[in-house]
Design brief:
Length: 209
């Protein structure tokens, strides 16, 4: 009996040792492997993911109606390393921007604009300036301007009214007109209101009885 117990004890001890070795070796060989996270990467505010469309928000024409030139002056601090904006100011890495709104692309005499920008037709109106400030490289592919752009529409609107106040003063674009409800929708709403009124009157009559 003693020998049997001894053998059983050795078998049990061996099984426990093998199990422990398996666990330790598994952790050792798995240590260098990285688990795939449930959520990949980092969320960057203002950047649209491939998983769905971002909320477009108010149009730039709507934002311009309440834009703040003082706030735009603060945004312009990002531009000041390359541009001056005072009347008669010198060109820097970029051209002087005084009275630039409403002017043709490449209007500053003596500044070496890129061919990409000079080839873009039209003037610096609100739509074109908004597109330029959003992404200069998309607006004029091949531009020498290295600034990536302003992702926030509010910042662009504020900056544009500030630029406009520096010697341009072109009129703001018209605010978008709110769409009138369709005739069918108006009739449906009127029908619902009428039914609700009839229900109230019926309840009042029942209460009087």
């Amino acid at each position: 009996m003693s020998n049997n117990n001894t053998i059983a004890g050795w078998v049990l001890a061996g099984g426990i040792a093998a199990l422990g070795f398996s666990i330790v070796s598994g952790k050792y060989f798995h240590a260098g492997k990285h688990e795939r996270p449930e959520v990949m990467g980092y969320v960057i505010e203002g950047v649209e993911s491939s998983g769905g469309a971002a909320d477009a928000g108010p149009s730039i024409e709507t934002l311009l109606q309440t834009a703040d030139a003082a706030a735009g002056e603060k945004v312009f601090a990002k531009c000041a390393a390359c541009h001056t904006i005072n009347q008669g100011g010198a060109n820097g890495i970029g051209p002087n921007l005084y009275a630039s709104m409403g002017k043709p692309h490449g209007h500053v005499a003596g500044f070496a604009y890129s061919d990409a920008l000079k080839s873009v037709p039209g003037n610096w109106d609100w739509t074109s300036m908004d597109a330029w400030l959003t992404s200069p490289r998309k607006y004029a592919n091949g531009t020498k301007m290295t600034f990536a752009g302003l992702g926030k529409a509010e910042d662009r609107a504020n900056l544009m009214v500030y630029l406009n106040a520096q010697g341009s003063n072109i009129p703001l674009p018209a605010a978008p007109v709110a769409e009138e409800p369709a005739a069918d929708e108006a009739e449906a709403e009127a029908g619902v209101d009428a039914e609700a009124q009839e229900a109230v009157e019926a309840d009042a009559a029942a209460a009087e009885e």
